[in-house]
Amino acid sequence: MEEIIKKILSDSQSVVQTFMDTHSGHIVTLSEKIASAFLRDQKLLICGNGGSAADAQHMAAEFVNRFQLERPPLPAMALTTDTSVITSIGNDYAFEDIFSKQIKALGIEGDVLLAISTSGNSQNVVSAVKVARKQGLYTAALLGKDGGELSKMVDLPLVVTCNVTARTQEAHILAEHMICHLVDYILFQKHLEE
């Protein structure tokens, strides 16, 4: 079993390193877009399914509460958390609409949508991006495999070119933490340098 652990660790490090070598500049760009939205009193909306839903909630919590720095709350929202909204939309319309209807209700031009999908093809996330683009939101996505349909739709695709979901998610959570750190750095730079 120790050999299994070593193999998983080696694979994870390789996937993360390749992703960061390719996308570190894109992580900076996305962090700047989010910070700019926050400075304009606009918000970050985040969506995904399964483990990506958990990532969406985790990232929103880092902004609304705090990441590492003591600072004011920042307006981020996971579209995965309101069970009454999600189940009513899923029941009355379709599961495909659970995020897009929330964006129609809550998203305004200048907000940022971060879509998370390890396949890049989750239809409810695809619908969310379509609506977000129509409403003038900046769209970015953390993706896996070949990026799928979403990689061609968003303003900024960040693709972990890996077919193993767990390794992809490990790269995603590191990118999410980096974004949280960089947004804090951009908005509260002088405190981070003290």
Considering the chains and any ligands shown, give keywords for the structure:
194 residues, single chain, 5-stranded parallel β-sheet, 57% helix, Rossmann fold, alpha/beta
What does this structure look like?
The chain has 194 residues and is of the alpha/beta class. It has a single domain, classed as Glucose-6-phosphate isomerase like protein, domain 1 (Rossmann fold, 3-Layer(aba) Sandwich), CATH 3.40.50.10490. Helix content is 57%, strand content 13%. The chain has 6 helices and 5 strands. The chain has a 5-stranded parallel β-sheet with strand order 2-1-3-4-5. Helix 5 links the parallel strand 3 and strand 4. The mean pLDDT is 96.
Number of strands: 5
Examine the secondary-structure arrangement and name the CATH architecture. Answer: 3-Layer(aba) Sandwich
Main beta-sheet annotation = 5 strands, parallel
Please report which band the strand proportion falls in: under 5%, 5-15%, 15-25%, 25-35%, 35-45% or over 45%. 5-15%
Neighbour order of strands in the largest sheet: 2-1-3-4-5
Unreliable runs: none
Give the CATH H-level superfamily.
Answer: Glucose-6-phosphate isomerase like protein, domain 1
Mean pLDDT metric: 96
Summarize the helix and strand pattern as letters.
Answer: HEHEHHEHEEH
What form results from the Cα inertia axes? globular
